[in-house]
Input
Amino acid sequence: MTDARDDARDTDRTGTPDADPTGTADADPAGARGGGPAGGRKVDRRRELSGCPVHGGWEVHEYAVAREVLRHPDTLQAGLGVETVEKLPARIRRPVLYQDEPGHREQRRQTARFFTPRRVDEHYRPLMARVAEEQIAVLRTAGTAQLSDLSFTMAIEVVSDIIGLRHSRPGLKRRLERFFPERFGRPGLTSPSGLYWLARQNASWLRIHLADVRPAIRAHRRQERDDLISHLLAEGCSPAEILGECLTYAAAGMVTTREFICVAAWHLFDDPELRGRYRAAAEPERLALLQEILRLEPVVGRLARRTTAPLRLTTADGTASVGPSELITLYVDAANTDQRVVGPEAGRVRPGRVLGLGPGAAGLAFGDGAHRCPGATVAVLEADALLSRLFALDGLRLAGRPRVSFKDDIGGYEIRDMTMTVPASPAA
Output
């Protein structure tokens, strides 16, 4: 753990750390920030990690310290746009992602029923199977498809069912693509670019409200359902508050799952041994294998917390004293390759690891503590529902190399141009 104000992470002229505090020196770099060797990382965030220091705060790269910060009662959610949300009028309820105790705990308790094992098995599994089969049919009929399109459709269908967005006008996928663009400028009032992005952002909010959220609210007022929108209406939430919650779930459940599916497929395409193991495995082993890939390639590579009281954290270098109101930035991809927890060859996919400190197989990829992703099980299951069917296809090939871009505000990545081909079959 380092204090960014002290420039403790010395770097050479290329921006590469001189020392590897987490013991990940064996991690294979991915050429051109994408596409490393079989078993190694496909997404190379080294330049981004060292090139975007956190000024006036602390940086955490150790797994145990990161987990402690995420679980500590004297830290609050930071980053992920929370600073913008805090500027909203006090009368507007914050989406659950931006809430903290005690309101956050109560909301998580009330919505936990949407993610129970029974709910997943009885409701979401059949939906996942149906949508996955539909995506396979698209690929087989055309003979080619972009995995980012198939995976996004998969994620949209599943998360829309959890939310209650079942009455949308045609084009939800297109509206979400525009709301979450690959490249996003900074909205503002002082430049033509800022004005453009401000107008575009507001227009995107309005389109989703009018075409998706408002029709769903009207339908739920006519007939109550067991989903998020009915729950929010019962809580007395306004349409604007419901819109904010829906878009939060879209970002957390649709956008991230899309990238998870793409990076997992990339590993399976590039590693014949891993692909054979996945194809031959029963579901529990397949799910563990996918989580091991996610451990190595967390979609959100950076989380942040702000302290509300002094913290004393025990690190490998000694005790760190963090004052109140300090920003702590957690590098999830570094923590998830901490050899002290993960074991040897931490920078490679090695299914069947016995992890220290009792994390899930994906490490901190879904977060930890009060803000751990409640839909983690759903995300892994829907990834497997699509990928297990894809890699059962005869003649499945990856044409060309995928393209990787980055979301530096969260240390995230996007994978595009993942063109798959199969021998085309006639439409049914």
